Every structure is written in structure tokens, then in C-alpha cells.
Amino acid sequence: MPDEDSKIDHYVLEYRRTNFEGPPRAKEDQPWMVVEGIKGTEYTLAGLKFDMKYMNFRVRACNKAVAGEFSEPVTLETRAFTFKLDASTCHQNLRVEELSVEWDATGGKVQDVKAREKDGKGRTASPANSPAR
């Protein structure tokens, strides 16, 4: 929140999608989306998704009489990340294959563990003492 002595009443944030990295170009296809009346110096923009194209953001401060100039635009990207589940360390009811993950409520791995325990090759710790998976 701005200081009590500050003459800033609120901020205006504008953003838009773009297809390239860098400052905005003279002719843009996408219009600026406007968020008005932001009282603090931080704002969370909801609805963004992973792996979106680049986005331009700019902000300006306003007092009760007039709005200031926009800041220099900043270009950001919501990059996606990849991860892989390990079948040997995942939850016992989770069936992990190369390109799919499926919840098996009947305990797909539980049956395998019980079979190994019968053969004397299974876990020796009780479920209460086993590490969380």
C-alpha cells in the first residue's frame, strides 16, 4: 500500500498477449486488457496458464486528478515445465506407465507387495512405520 504521504491513489495495470519476446510493436493484434483501481504495489493476475505465448505488461500510477505515464512495458512468458513420476516410489495405488497415470482403488501394487511378503521378499516394516509415498 502506498505511504500515507504519497499522492498516488491507485494503479492501472494493462496486459496483452503477444507472439514474440521484446517490447510492443507499432501494430499489435491483441488489445490491452485493463485492471483498474489497484490500491497496493502488488497484484496477482488470475487465469494465466502454463506455456502461454509472451505477454506484455505495463502499469501507471494515478492520483485523484490525473493518471501518470505508463511504465516501459515488460514482456513475460508462463513457461511450462515437465516432470516424470517414478513408478517405484509413487503411491501404491497409483499405476504409472510411460505416458499415463491411473489411480487403482483396488491397490494394484498392494497385491504385488502382499505376494512378495508371502514369499519372504517383501517389506519388514509395518505400514505405520513406512515412509510416506
TrEMBL record:
GO terms for biological process: regulation of cell division; regulation of mitotic spindle organization. GO terms for molecular function: microtubule binding. Transmembrane segments: none annotated. Residues 111-122 have a biased composition (Basic and acidic residues). Residues 110-133 are annotated as: Disordered. Residues 1-81 form the Fibronectin type-III domain. GO terms for cellular component: microtubule. PANTHER family: E3 UBIQUITIN-PROTEIN LIGASE TRIM36-RELATED (PTHR24099), FIBRONECTIN TYPE III AND SPRY DOMAIN-CONTAINING PROTEIN 1 (PTHR24099:SF4). This is FSD1 protein. The lineage of its organism: Eukaryota, Metazoa, Chordata, Craniata, Vertebrata.
